[in-house]
């Protein structure tokens, strides 16, 4: 009997040790917004206001999470994505972000849109220790892990993109007379900083006029007229889609035909090009990091085929030519992969830790471009390619360009 008792104790101890050390059945760790069946995440986006074209990203991400939930969620947990309208207004963003963190108690924030809007809240978010992930801006201030370790951008940095355009202009048209229309906020200032850096000591002579606008302005017509009068033969458009459309159209209507560049955040075919008119936009150069569904080279791409099936079933309200349809799909995919990487340790600390160690391909990023982060560089996307609008769609014409 003593032998049997001793054997039983040894067996029980062995089982207890296995349970304690097995990663498959390790103790679950949850932070706010997480249960055995749900994980709450939140965002703010402009469903109304001058930047409402951007809301297609949140609509598309919502549709992606709906598909994931229908398939059973992530590790058995459904994603509850709370998406609030901030009208692209910083005071409204403050109100809505506080609601998401303090009332809805979301686990983390994903892709809140806008430079000025995120500027209004990122210090508060970092003080609260809430992961502020894949935010919809490329302003350089949002890659500062030493001071703001909870904030991570998504969009390639505006300054780096601006430098890409400048270097291209210098190499192809070194005698260019450049006119610039720029948004009067940190978005515009970052692009300008990089653009001037790319021109180097030629900036003071090549830039003949810079005009600013505010997102509350009804139009940018007068600024475009002034830029034409400056004699500029290159027009750099640093705007959100509504004002990109106005600028492209006005230049065409007043018979001004410079070489036009429009920044990626204002280049959407649905939000900018179609409203301006395809003929008016023909020849415009921009930069891209994701596949364009209108590009026939992707028609047999398995990832694009899967995206098309998903659009038909889950996201039919968004136009397929909208830049923010594949954008939201990529965001959703990245979030799901991050949650899988976290396993059952869904504390905010581990979510941020995993977010700072990403290295993955996304289905709708251009070949050669991947999501990669480190604790000292929280920019997920650091590469782009130049594209030109041919009157129907954007066509790639450069290799992958790394952003510094």
What would your notes on this structure say?
This protein is of the alpha/beta class. It folds into 2 domains: 30-156 and 297-382, Rossmann fold; 158-288, 3-Layer(aba) Sandwich (Rossmann fold), CATH 3.40.50. 42% of the residues lie in helices and 18% in strands. The chain is built from 15 helices and 17 strands. The chain has helices at 2-21, 55-70, 90-103, 115-119, 122-128, 158-172, 186-199, 203-206, 221-229, 241-253, 269-276, 278-281, 302-314, 324-342, 348-355; strands at residues 29-30, 38-45, 78-85, 108-110, 132-135, 151-153, 178-183, 207-213, 234-238, 259-262, 285-288, 345-346, 359-360, 371-372, 383-389, 394-396, 401-402. The strands form 5 sheets. Strands 3-2-4-5-6 form a 5-stranded parallel β-sheet, with helices on both faces. Helix 6 (158-172) runs parallel beside helix 7, helix 9 (221-229) packs across helix 10 (241-253) and helix 10 (241-253) packs parallel to helix 11 (269-276). The chain is globular. The chain starts with a helix and ends with a strand. The model is unreliable at 1-25 (pLDDT under 50).
Helix-strand category = alpha/beta
The CATH homologous superfamily of the largest domain corresponds to Response regulator
Question: Kindly, what is the distance between the CA atoms of the first and last residues, rounded to a whole number of angstroms?
Answer: 73 Å
The structural domain count equals 2
